[in-house]
Amino acid sequence: MNDRLLIFALCTAEVLTMAGVFAFPALLPSFIVEWGLSKTEAGWIAGLYFAAYAITAPPVLALTDRVDARYVYLGGALLAAAASSGFALFADGFWSALLFRGLAGASLAATYMPGLRVLMDRYQGPQPSRALSLYTSSFSLGTALSFLLVGEMAAAAGWRAAFAATAAAALLAAAVPLLVTRVTPEPPLAGSRRLLDFRPVLANRPALAYVLGYGAHCWELFTLRSWMVAFLVFSLSLQTDTTSGGESGWLSPTVVASLSGLVTMAASIAGNELCVRYGRRRMITIMMLVSAAAAVVIGFTAPLAYAFVVTLILVYSCLVHLDSASLTAGTVEAAAVGQRGATLAVHSFVGFACAGLGPLVFGVVLDVAGSGTTTVSWGLGFASLATVGVLGPLALRIGLRPGEDVRTHAG
């Protein structure tokens, strides 16, 4: 494959394997009612998906320093299909949903960053950070597909059919790694022969700064994605006039979540271009602080006109996504020779451990502050994201010296 076809193929595969990522959040209000879930239990199911990712990512990504990442990707795509099929056939409450969402989270760990490794090991073009930003930004396109496919399929044929459709999408993606050329990974540095030896990564101060920033970013990002539909459903319940949009209109919560995936893909690419032009650390700091400021107020807007709330949630989604590609690009460029897989393993573990905690903490805040039945509870839930979001700029300030935000590190 030439570089353009390579990028297109891997971005397409990423979108397909992600069809089931937000299947549970897309239908969260329905599951809460059908299974009698508390907000905390719903947070556990939503959060465990990303916690399973965090646990699986280190050994899986470290393995890509030893074997061609395309084999890891193939296994992950097949596991995604199996996990979605299992949910469609057997899920009937909290514990079974927890099991199959955990398996699905593990499958994402074997496809998302290994797919990035497949791309970066084969890309020969002059702008690797732009190729990387296209791939990571496709995560947002996958988000859009996940919410839209599941929402529409569930409305037409029920939620079990919706999960079955996500399994079929993952099977299609499994063909892509079979089409790319075989490569041999760079040999690890001397003294780093053990598969799970992450000490060189933890000693790489610039890489660790981006990793910690990514953790703060993932806490905010995946909490928003996990609870967005439920928040919009709550906002709709407060409306006295729903003529501007409703469950059956184009402004229904799942459609809004799908639309957010499309607009945030452009935001992520634009954010990376701003970082290339004006400096990565400076721009990421500004982006994260503005996003945190928005989080403080967004939940309190629920009683306002629904169309206005939708506009605000789309703007907030864009703010959260501006730094997404740039943080991962920073980690990749700061990785030492022979340590790219191990560095991405730590990057993914920290990011998705935070992604797993965020939805759970948000659900606990909702339960404690009014069980998600009051505007104050949603306001406090979103405000809790700001307290974590400001830690990202702090990590970059401590971990990076002036002028150290864009150079590539050799070790």
Radius of gyration: 20 Å
Low-confidence stretches: 242-249, 406-411
Structural class: mainly alpha
Order of helices and strands: HHHHHHHHHHHHHHHHHH
User: What's the CATH H-level superfamily name?
Assistant: MFS general substrate transporter like domains
The residue-averaged pLDDT reads 85
As for the number of domains, it is 1
Output the number of helix runs: 18
The counted number of beta strands is 0
Question: What is the class in the CATH system?
Answer: Mainly Alpha
Give the structure's gist in a few sentences.
This protein is mostly helical and 411 residues long. It has a single domain (3-180, 198-399), classed as MFS general substrate transporter like domains (Growth Hormone, Chain: A), CATH 1.20.1250.20.
Annotation keywords:
single chain, 411 residues, mainly alpha, Growth Hormone, Chain: A
Please describe the topology of this protein.
Layout: H1 3-17, H2 23-26, H3 28-35, H4 39-63, H5 69-90, H6 94-109, H7 112-122, H8 128-157, H9 159-173, H10 199-202, H11 205-237, H12 253-278, H13 280-298, H14 306-321, H15 324-334, H16 340-368, H17 375-389, H18 391-399
